[in-house]
Amino acid sequence: MTSSRKRARTYDPAKIRAALLAQFGHVREGVRALDEERLARPAGLGDWTVRELAAHITMSLDVVSRQLGLPEPPAKELALLDWPFGTAARAGAIADGTRALAAAHPDLDALYAAVEARATEDLATAPGDRLLGVPAGAMTLADFLVTRTVELVVHTDDLNRAAGTDVPFDRQALAACTRLLADALAVKAPGASTEVRIPPYAVVQCVEGPRHTRGTPPNVVETDPLTWIRLATGRAEWKAALDEAKVSASGERADLGGLLPLMG
Questions:
Q1: Domain spanning 13-173, CATH class
Q2: Pick among 3.30.470.30, 3.90.1180.10, 3.30.1050.40, 3.30.200.20: CATH of 189-259
Q3: Residue 14 Cα distances to 64, 183, 212, 242, angstroms
């Protein structure tokens, strides 16, 4: 696991809770409008269909309720900025659980309604410093909700691209996802020679080399939030994004291709 030496930025717990539930509501509306033809389309994630992707999205929120129903673990072990680097190892188990969930719940709207109601009730009273068990250790509820927001935003984009939907992004949710993945890059490649700009949500410095102090930085990367999220999660390739002018990169230390993706 990549060790986080960077101090994680703080996220307002109330805003993150609201953003998470709002984004889940947006996705529920989008899934409700899908017909059987679109549900049967490939999701672009392994061999999943859109139906399986839609079922999987509920797991992003339902895991909060399930963890709150378990005893509190003894100690906090996993830092928020370490979380992105541990996701790929769980891909196999997640895929198996997703297929089982989709098969067991043919009525997706009923599944979304149950998950949404349960999580809304649980989050109304659970304190942010409550520890939850996660595969790599334990996290506070406040930190865990940031990771859930990242998962939900990433999969909202997956759904839109696979099913042709236009599910909107809650602004606070999109901002949190962009910022966490930008900060993860700074953890993976610490330094201050390159400035990565993702307006309007994030600016980070990374990559070892001469530190920039004044004027225009010599190495600058700039892109939009969704392109950044796709690059950071392996949905898009660095060279293709450059060729399509979705990313601008100037300077000898502005090539991030070898550092991406950050999570799978």
A1: mainly alpha
A2: 3.30.1050.40
A3: 15, 21, 36, 37
